[in-house]
Inverse folding.
């Protein structure tokens, strides 16, 4: 079943619900739409699955009901520059669940959509379990990301003033050459991520851990560390390093922590279905009490 849902900013997002209705539901806001032809070939060069959303949904619907949509793609098409805050995103996600008649659900998000999952968990009582990929739940790099997004936004404004046109299709932000890149993204898109991280500037993810009384998993790729160049603040966003450094504290707080091994397992590789599903599916099955089929 698919449905167009009108969000709080009056934009419409396509949402799907797949699988048997009496099974536990997993919310997947990372379900990018499939692309084909030359665009698909370009994504493959970056190690990106051009049918990422489809493969995640198909990989889970034999066991779970899956509530899926492409929130990042939606916000590239319909930017919400002044109002992309945790509060408003949580409102959107809970409204989507309500409109699809889903009361309680588990959640999987990656990168900034992982931190949204953390916000969803502490702002509602509807999550049954939480998986955060590519963004640590403890001592997360909020300040570093605020610097990077601010610099990215300034670059976008500069290239807009120069009259440089944005290329067709969404950019793969994880694979940019941060020393030499000229940002041509729509400044309205970059501004919304400035808004997001500014609204999290005072957020203390250590002080909210007692609220997370549910099964929870955090993971990152072994090589998930990005060093940004001078034009982007000279900061390093070390997702995997933060997970490793706080692994003991996270375990004491009830988190399962996994590092996806491989010399190529960077931020992009560690979000692909082929990398994530072998971890994600058995973890959900174990923590939601689902037995393997004989």
């Amino acid at each position: 079943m698919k449905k167009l849902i009108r969000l709080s900013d009056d934009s419409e997002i396509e949402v799907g619900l797949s699988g048997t209705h009496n099974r536990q539901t997993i919310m997947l806001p990372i379900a990018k739409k499939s692309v084909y032809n030359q665009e698909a070939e370009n994504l493959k060069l970056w190690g990106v699955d051009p049918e990422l959303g489809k493969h995640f949904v198909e990989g889970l619907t034999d066991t779970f009901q899956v509530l899926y949509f492409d929130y990042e793609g939606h916000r590239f098409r319909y930017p919400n520059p002044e109002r992309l805050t945790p509060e408003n995103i949580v409102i959107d996600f809970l409204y989507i669940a309500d409109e699809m008649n889903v009361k309680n659900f588990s959640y999987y998000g990656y990168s900034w959509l992982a931190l949204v999952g953390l916000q969803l968990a502490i702002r509602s009582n509807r999550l049954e379990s939480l998986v955060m990929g590519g963004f640590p739940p403890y001592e997360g790099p909020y300040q570093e990301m605020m610097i990077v997004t601010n610099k990215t936004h300034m670059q976008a404004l500069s290239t807009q003033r120069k009259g440089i046109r944005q290329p067709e299709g969404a950019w793969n932000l994880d694979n940019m050459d941060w020393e030499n890149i000229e940002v041509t993204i729509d400044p309205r898109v970059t501004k919304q991520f400035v808004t997001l991280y500014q609204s999290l500037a005072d957020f203390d993810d250590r002080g909210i851990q007692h609220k997370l009384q549910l099964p929870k998993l955090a993971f990152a790729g072994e090589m998930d560390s990005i060093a940004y160049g001078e034009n982007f603040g000279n900061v390093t966003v070390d997702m995997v390093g933060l997970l490793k450094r706080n692994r003991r504290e996270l375990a004491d707080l009830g988190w399962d922590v996994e590092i996806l091994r491989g010399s190529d397992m960077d931020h992009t590789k560690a979000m692909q279905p082929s990398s994530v599903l072998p971890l994600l599916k058995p973890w959900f099955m174990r923590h939601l009490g689902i037995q393997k089929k004989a």
About this structure: DSSP finds ten helices and ten strands in the chain. The first strand starts at residue 2 and ends at 6.
